[in-house]
Amino acid sequence: MILLFLSFRTPQRYFAQVKDMLPVVVVHGGAGQIPKDRTEMSTAGVCSAARAGYTILCGGGSSMDAVVEAVSVLENNPCYNAGCGSVLNIKGEVEMDAIVMDGKTLGSGAVSAVRNIANPIQLARLVMDKTSHSFLTAEGANQFARSMGVPEVSPESLITEYSRMRWVKNLAPDANPVESQMGKMGTVGAVAVDSEGNIACATSTGGMLNKMEGRVGDTPCIGSGGYADNLFGAVSTTGHGETIMKVTLARLILFYIEQGQSVEAASDLGLAYMKSRVSGLGGVVSVDPQGRWAARFSSQQMSWAAAQTETLHYGLYAGEHFTQSLEKPL
Ligand code: ASP
């Protein structure tokens, strides 16, 4: 009996079990509360993004390729506060932030306050891959984009009717843009583990509604908007940036995993700490090296989706968890 138990626990068997859980990708479409007429769009968008990331992983692509693809799909979807659809700053302009991190090397790339770029997440990856720096901002980041041949798009092409309407509404003297934003959600992010066990994260945002020009939030800040380490896992965050930065939420959750917490418990502990310590609400998607994952939030809602072992998982409200075969077309 003992022998049987021991043979069950051999490293080969354990590795085979871990392999069964890989690859995996988990995405989010922002923490907050989504208006009823936008719930379907928001859920459909994260499901498409998780499928896109999973297709890359199943074709032998890396976790970095998968998270960048998933986030690009969400940036291209006007329903989210990233890329086209980004919220506007006080001057009515789009300024975007993004980060990627590679859990194998702990290399990262980030951009902040970039304009006229359709996919800031791809620019963040270029910063990681093609420069000796990890973070470029504003005009310097835009200049680098030009030097890399990244096409510039017109500022208007990133602005939707919906974001302009919210900007105007929040110019009113009695408006509360932070509350209004947590009432609408939209930052996007992804985490993934590929079949080789390499882990990556990516997060992209237009930031906070009616923010000051030049304001940079948590998203492009390593350890706040995201963190990835092959030894412990990866996290992508969403919520009020100034609050997330106070607790370096992504790294805090990985610290709890490092201390032996499950990926779900660690995510809940990080969010609970942010709530009790600095009254902040938010959401995260997290994975560990074994491919266990969580999509957790303290806000009212967060659209999320995960793809693993030919199954698509998704949800929006707390406690919601639907599944569908990935073979079933959208
Ligand atoms: N964290 C983002 C920021 O503060 C906003 C969000 O996640 O909704 O820029």
Describe this structure in words.
Helix content is 36%, strand content 25%. It is an alpha+beta fold. The protein has one domain (23-324): (Glycosyl)asparaginase (Glutamine Phosphoribosylpyrophosphate, subunit 1, domain 1, 4-Layer Sandwich). The strands form two sheets. The chain has a nine-stranded mixed β-sheet with strand order 4-3-2-6-5-1-11-12-13. The radius of gyration is 19 Å and the shape is globular. The N and C termini lie far apart (48 Å). Residues 30, 186-187, 205, 207-208, 217-219, 238-241, 244 line the site of aspartic acid.
In short:
By secondary structure, this protein is α+β, with helices and mostly antiparallel strands. It has helices spanning 2-8, 11-21, 39-58, 63-75, 120-130, 138-147, 161-169, 177-182, 241-247, 249-258, 263-278, and strands at 24-32, 96-102, 107-114, 135-137, 188-193, 199-205, 226-229, 233-239, 282-287, 293-297, 301-308, 311-317, 322-325. Helices cover 36% and strands 25% of the residues.
